Amino acid sequence: MEPLEHRTIAKVTARLVPFLIVCFFVAYLDRVNVSFAALTMNKDLGLSASAFGFGAGIFFLAYFLFEVPSNLFLERVGARRWIARIMFTWGVLSGGMAFIGGETSFYVVRVLLGIAEAGFFPGIIFFLTLWFPAVYRARIVGYFMAAIPLSTVIGAPVSGLLLGLDGFMDMKGWQWLFILAAAPALILSVIVFLYLTDRPADATWLDPEERAWLVARLEQERLQRDRVRRYSVTQALAHGRVWLLALLYFALVCGLYGVSFWIPQIIQGFGGLGDFAVGVVSMVPYLAAAIGMVIVGAHSDRRQERRWHLAGPAFVGAAGLVVSGSVMSPVVSLAALSLGALGMWSALGPFWARSATFASGSAAAGAIALVNSVGNLGGFLGPSLVGLVKEHTGSFAGGLAVLAGWLVLAGVIALALRDEAAPPA
Questions:
Q1: Residue 2 CB neighbour total at 10 angstroms
Q2: Listed residue (316, 306, 270) closest to 142, CA to CA
Q3: How buried is 207 (Cβ within 10 angstroms: 0-12 exposed, 13-18 middle, 19+ buried)?
Q4: What is the pLDDT of residue 231?
Q5: Would you put residue 169 in left (φ > 0), alpha (ψ -120 to 50) or beta?
Q6: I want to staple 261 with a disulfide (CB 3.0 to 4.6 A). Which of 166, 254, 348, 383 is the partner?
């Protein structure tokens, strides 16, 4: 690597990635803290397992409907303004979860939260394509998305502690969990607006030669894609490869969120653990996932290989979930669940590195948003399936097996897809 390239990428990484990790950390924590609130909220509100699973997942139906328009709007007005708006509105609504009173209000606020957050994740993925050449993207996306498991590594014990505020100021512990977890998003919305730079050409914090190199390198990659074929937004959204990627992501997300929303209750089912202890033990699968994401993403970039770095972790994740649900020992079950989490989350960096090279400009923004929005419908199906199976069987084993089947499908599709960045239509 040339010294100029090394210096520029290091400076861009240091400037953007840690801050974006913090933002996504808060986003994901706000999205899934309902899983920890459920430890006491479900009983207080009279929510059944299927009602909770449906309410946890309905977020993604609204997310699906507004994802593509949101990302196209971000490409037009700039990431700085649009991401700040997203974080402010989801912070308000996440705090509003503290005031739900039953099934109906639970569903309504989760829908509104999905609308508010739509566009955040694909917006960040698109934003990263504007700053990092393709050869760096698996590791950068892996670093960024490590915020998902890390949010739970840190958030799980904190959530357990906040549930202990039950009765403080005549409010339930789960209400305090929602209120206090919403504050960082509101604060960060202001910082995003002041801190982010929309494009490299505007980066006054880079030296002129660094800025010129980065702009030229990214423009060269754009021209290479366009020489194969220049896609309009409509053509990109209708392309078969985009829909295969969306199906792959749907299958992967079924497993990811099917597990995420139920991990605290799965661990609670081991027996003998209080709310704080459940939070601490819940850290273990996510810590394994965070380590796996960083290692697999960096290895994928070094080898410049995506198919097996995506399919392999998906198959490992499936095996872990099957074993976790089929053994009686809590220790072995937790270890297998951790292996499953490591596999599922490790697939994300190579997936987005592979998916974000299809087109450029508005076509890329639309395609990334479509893949993410369709894929995130798995966030509705996965938790709902686990809830339904649990309610009918009294066990999480069947639900975990169903999720494993979706992960196997994700791996099969990953192997079937060619590696070309921009295949002809």
A1: 8
A2: 306
A3: middle
A4: 67
A5: left
A6: 383
100: tokens are: 């739900």
Distance CA 357, CA 129 (A): 8
Which H, E and C letters describe 321-390, residue by residue?
HHHHHHCCCHHHHHHHHHHHHHHHHHCHHHHHHHHCCCCCHHHHHHHHHHHHHHHCCHHHHHHHHHHHHH
Give the model's pLDDT for residue 357. Answer: 59
Kindly list the domain boundaries of the chain, sorted by start residue: 10-200+233-416
Residue 424: its pLDDT value, please?
A: 35
Phi, psi of 125 (to 5 degrees): -60, -45
What are the average pLDDT values for consecutive 10-residue runs of the chain, which has 425 residues? 88 93 81 81 89 84 83 85 92 92 92 89 85 85 77 74 85 91 92 93 94 93 70 73 91 90 85 79 88 89 88 96 92 94 92 69 75 84 88 89 96 83 37
Q: Which two tokens stand for residue 10?
A: 């290091």
Q: Which CATH superfamily is domain 10-200+233-416 in?
A: MFS general substrate transporter like domains (1.20.1250.20)
Residue 101 φ then ψ, to 5°: -125, 0
